[in-house]
């Protein structure tokens, strides 16, 4: 009889374990990714939501300043920029607009009084790398790709603002860290790193966004600062910005008229 009672007690103790367990809490990594996505969704909405996502082309006018090792090497140059998402870009410099850089896909050109030449390998690769990690590429393209990974890395203070730090990693293991304002959810800074194939050194490039103003239902930074390994490299101040003006593809079509790398043909 005692054996029977003991068996029944053991069976009762085991019974709760046989019942389906309650729903498990979300794993930490999934909860972390979900929080990162929520913040990025808020950033896209703060930028303009569907209006931001539907930008096809951008026209800008302003003044650009270049730096060398963090020190200004010019008094600033007027510029006009025509950009067609995702890979067509044209920048016209000087008041006469007689120095022009044109990028179309993976090709780049410089147009001056000498004619049109293809950009050298380093000039072009520097530009293409920055475009690959551009903010609009990350928010509009990377986030829609399969196997993209999102990481919430906590709160921080950057550029004097409280921010949420998010890292976006694509399937190629390329990462971009975005710093999103904790209050208005607008992007404050973008950072990415890459390793130079020649000297194997790791380089860090960042963009800082400031002076946001609404333009055609889209919050637009009118001051953009680019840094390279902590030193200021370029700063742009926009005076005019317009969206979706129907820029023609012909604006990005050029014909090479000379190649300095090939020298002057012998006579």
Structure description:
By secondary structure, this protein is α+β, with helices and mostly antiparallel strands. It has a single domain, classed as Lipoprotein localisation LolA/LolB/LppX (outer membrane lipoprotein receptor (LolB), chain A, Clam), CATH 2.50.20. Helices cover 22% and strands 44% of the residues. The chain has five helices and 14 strands. It has helices at 2-18, 28-47, 50-53, 121-132, 135-140; strands at 57-68, 71-72, 77-84, 88-93, 99-104, 107-112, 115-118, 149-158, 161-169, 175-181, 187-195, 202-215, 218-228, 231-243. Strands 1, 2, 3, 4, 5, 6, 7, 8, 9, 10, 11, 12, 13 and 14 form a 14-stranded antiparallel β-sheet that branches. Strand 12 (202-215) and strand 13 (218-228) form a beta hairpin. The longest helix is centred in the first third of the chain and has 20 residues, at 28-47. It is globular. Mean pLDDT is 89; it is low at 1-26.
Mean pLDDT: 89
Q: What name does the CATH topology carry?
A: outer membrane lipoprotein receptor (LolB), chain A
Low-confidence parts, pLDDT < 50 over ≥5 residues? 1-26
Query: Strand percentage, roughly?
Result: 35-45%
What's the Cα radius of gyration? Answer: 26 Å
CATH superfamily: Lipoprotein localisation LolA/LolB/LppX
Oligomer: single chain
N→C terminal distance? 117 Å
Helix content: 10-25%
Largest sheet: 14 strands, antiparallel
Judged by helices, strands and strand pairing, the structural class is alpha+beta
Features:
267 residues, 5 helices, outer membrane lipoprotein receptor (LolB), chain A
């Amino acid at each position: 009889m005692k054996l029977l009672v003991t068996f029944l007690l053991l069976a009762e103790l085991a019974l709760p374990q046989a019942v389906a367990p309650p729903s498990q809490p979300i794993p930490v990594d999934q909860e972390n990714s979900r929080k990162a996505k929520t913040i990025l969704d808020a950033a896209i909405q703060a930028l303009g939501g569907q209006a931001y996502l539907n930008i096809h082309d951008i026209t800008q006018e302003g003044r650009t300043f270049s730096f060398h090792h963090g020190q200004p090497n010019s008094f600033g140059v007027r510029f006009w920029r025509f950009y067609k998402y995702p890979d067509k870009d044209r920048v016209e410099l000087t008041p006469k607009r007689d120095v022009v850089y044109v990028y179309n896909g993976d090709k780049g050109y410089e147009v001056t009084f000498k004619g049109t030449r293809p950009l050298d390998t380093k000039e072009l690769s520097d530009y293409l790398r920055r475009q690959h990690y551009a903010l609009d590429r990350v928010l509009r393209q990377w986030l829609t790709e399969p196997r993209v990974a999102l990481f919430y890395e906590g709160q921080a203070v950057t550029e004097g603002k409280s921010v949420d730090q998010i890292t976006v990693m694509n399937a190629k293991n390329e990462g971009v860290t975005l710093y999103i304002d904790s209050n208005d959810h607008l992007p404050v800074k973008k950072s990415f790193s890459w390793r130079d194939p020649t000297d194997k050194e790791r380089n860090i490039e960042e963009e800082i966004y400031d002076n946001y103003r609404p333009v055609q239902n889209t919050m637009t930074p009118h001051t953009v600062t680019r840094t390279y390994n902590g030193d200021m490299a370029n700063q742009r101040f926009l005076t005019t910005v317009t969206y979706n003006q129907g820029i023609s593809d012909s604006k990005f079509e050029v014909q090479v008229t000379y190649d300095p790398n090939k020298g002057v043909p012998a006579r």
